[in-house]
Amino acid sequence: MRRTSLLLVFGFILTFTQAQVDTGAEEETGGEDDHVELFTTPTTKMGAATSDFGYNLFRALASREAATNVFLAPLSVSAALTQLSMGGSEQAERQLHRALRYHTLQDPQLHRTLKDLLASVKTAGKGLSLAARLCLTRRIRLKQEFFDLVEQQYGVRPKTLQGGAKDMKEVNDWVSQETSNNVQRFLAKPLPRNSFIHTVSAAHFTGKWTTRFGTDDQMMNFQLDGGTPVRVPMMQQVNYPMKLGVDSDLGCTIAQISMQDDVSMFVFLPNDVTSNLTLMEDSLTAEFVQDLSMTLLPAQVTLTLPKMKFSYSTDLQPLLGDLGLTDWLENPDLEKISSQVTKLSTVNHKVVMETVPEGNQYPSPSSTPGHLTYRVDRPFIYLIRDDPSGALLFIGRVVNPKDLRM
Ligand SMILES: *[C@@H]1O[C@H](CO)[C@@H](O)[C@H](O)[C@H]1NC(C)=O
Asked: How far is CA 180 from CA 124, 128, 176, 313, in A?
């Protein structure tokens, strides 16, 4: 496990405090035997497994799409691929479960645990909607028992594709409906003709802060790696209560900003202006982020954040090979779906996110702003996490907010 040593730096290091919670100290002195289990309940273990899958997928995407904005809502991808895993032979299921990190769970009630987790993160106050479904071509003989099995377990019946233009409209209408019309035009073009199985995964997230921002929509500079700064709308607030820490190994300052209904945003802001955030990307694990949530220190900060509203879509299928699924992609052995040879053709994924300045609390009134500032005005990584389960809801790398589009 990666050691975190975080310093909270006030202005010109007027004061600094070594953030070292009890669990951290124990690990430092003890050996492997003293390893503290961070995830102890089925739900937090599932939260960690889906997060670790999400970080792996994010790394694969981030390295394929170097130096660009990239986003994922990994839990929706986990949900869609888990439905697919139910159609595999025992060995195929095991392969897919390994990539999904379920081998760490030893949970006989895996599907129920995931279903409960999905239900809990979709409660209205968290601002997240998710959609996950399988679409299967009728060019192969499909086993109806599989449709029943998935519907019984996840309450969503796989869709049979007819192979015409209507398929695209129906898929898009379904995604739109599941996300309260927030994710539109899920498929931008018809599904390829000679294809078999498609997973649909989509998410919409509206940031609902605990503490509101007083200033919104002020145009400010955002630095680009090797380019002239761009002017983008920013939200700003003095004396903003949040948690903060400096990670000198990663060369970044990490913030945890509280959102409503036990959701947090974590921001990883590098010290220098660079679009190469590999070091930070590589450090992300469920354990590391859980550790952060315990070691970052509370502070009152002048916070400046870009106001974001965007959609992002991509086909993740080519990335699955990077997650150890090369053999599985060749021969997914989906015997419970069809006795004919079939393959996973696309893993289309679309996310929409918006941040608004509103919150349900005001920052403490004070005429003198503190010394600390946290100005997110250069390429950064952020993630949205459900705190009780630890599940990663959303993750993104923002290199140029000017390129973000709805
Ligand atoms: C990005 O940074 C990492 C480590 O900081 C380095 O190994 C890698 O070569 C860099 N990549 C590029 C494209 O500069």
From this structure: 11, 11, 6, 18
